[in-house]
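Re: duplicated header lines in exported structure tokens

Our pipeline writes sequence and tokens for each protein into one text file. With two proteins the header for the second block appears twice in some exports. Here is an export where it did not happen, for reference. First protein block:
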Amino acid sequence: MSDTLTATLRVASPSAARGANRTFVDIGEVPLAQWRELFARAIEPNAFYHPAWARAASEHAREAAHAKALLAYDPDDPARLIGLMPVVSSWQALGLPLPLLVSWQPYTRLTTPLIDRTRAHVAAAGLIDAARAAGARALLHIDYSCEGAAAMVVRDVLAKRGLAPRMLRRRERACLDATQDADALLHEALGAKKLKELRRQRHRLEDLGEVKFEVATAPADVARGLDQFLALEASGWKGMRGTALAGDMGDLAFIRAATQALAQEGCCEIVTLTAAGKAVAAGIVLRHDTRAYFFKIAYDEELAKSSPGVQLTLDLTRRFCADGAIADVDSTANAYHPMIDKIWRERLAVATAIVPLRANAFVGPMQFLVNARERVRRDLRRFYHRLLDSRETPR
């Protein structure tokens, strides 16, 4: 049996390498206290790798079965966790039997690994070595912050080994520079004419009753705010298409558990816009260090002419620009989003790359197969949405 095939079987098998060493373990086996300490010391924030968020996902997401974590420990202090990156096998993530580990993504909009800021290069090297020891020849790193501090450290470590990531795609999504004055920022982004139109739409909402922007941070308030969010999301197009969180028991169990756990630590809040006491728009916001994440938004689509989702985003913009603890906010939206791109003009570069772990990684053939699979999935997705649109269009 060839070395490549041996590595493929080790990485693709759900039971492979279980408990083989401390650097490649099930998500649920990562020592919780060490994970929390690393989260607090991360060189670059990533709220989606908060232990409570990732553990809730691993418990409830169907795609998370057999999810693993690559771990790096400080050679000078073996009890100190300095690096963590959740991964799954290429078979589980892609249906491809390749010697490839894939960054784990259930309910995650960013896969930047947690790297200890005080031992950054040692941590990055440890994660690379952990993936090699697990049998992988390469990592498929999906949707990571490619210009952030963590990516720079990983590139430095790879370069010293004569290696470099091979970029598959790079996108830029909206990001808010929360250090700016909100009014000046919104005026520059939208212009006087658009802001006047939005004020007119706000008055239209006020015709229904008093309009309030509310922020829930206490766990009990977060639970109530989440219920409002879930109801709004289920009432719209996501509910019709079966993609709302409340439409799947696993999704629902995950979001309830994760938001409650993060709210206990001040890392999650629900923002809501109400008119006459009724929620017309709501959003889920996560926080880590100096960055916030606008994870999801939902609004009353019957009030679309009043742009309740945009109104909520404007209020959220003003709130974060007044929050001295937050430097920037990741929209977590797709690139070229028709709403948020026009309001938040800064951009966060997010990329997908194949990261070779050794010189003879056979990256070229793996890249061809990964790209071919993505093209097929994209074509099938377009066909599926066209079919749905044709069924929903009145005849």
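Second protein block, exported in the same file:
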Amino acid sequence: MKSVFVILLILILGGCQKESPTQTEQRSAQLGDSFELKPGEAIMITGTPVSFRFDSVLFDGRCPEGVLCFWEGNAAIIISFPTEQDTVMTMDPHKIYKNDYEVTLQKLSPYPKSNQKIPKDAYVAQLSVLKHS
């Protein structure tokens, strides 16, 4: 009887899985509109074949507030388009071109402060997509 109970318990626990984090629902925006994405969020540009996901911040080397720097620095994010390799976008230059469309990284928040580490999931990228002529 004990062995039947143990087997049943193993089967029940084996069927349980840790819930995977829910994917953020893909949002949509209009061509030319400015929109914000957090890491892991995706966007589809209405009426176009353009859609992508803001995967993560690759690096943030911008000169922190309150610090005197020789160079303002740069930051880079990784975005992914369906069926393509990940794409790196930087603050300078802040545009990439995909087919007939121009994707612009307008802003990356929060801006770094001296001696304060920004958690990777706290970033917000402000972007826009225009038709490139």
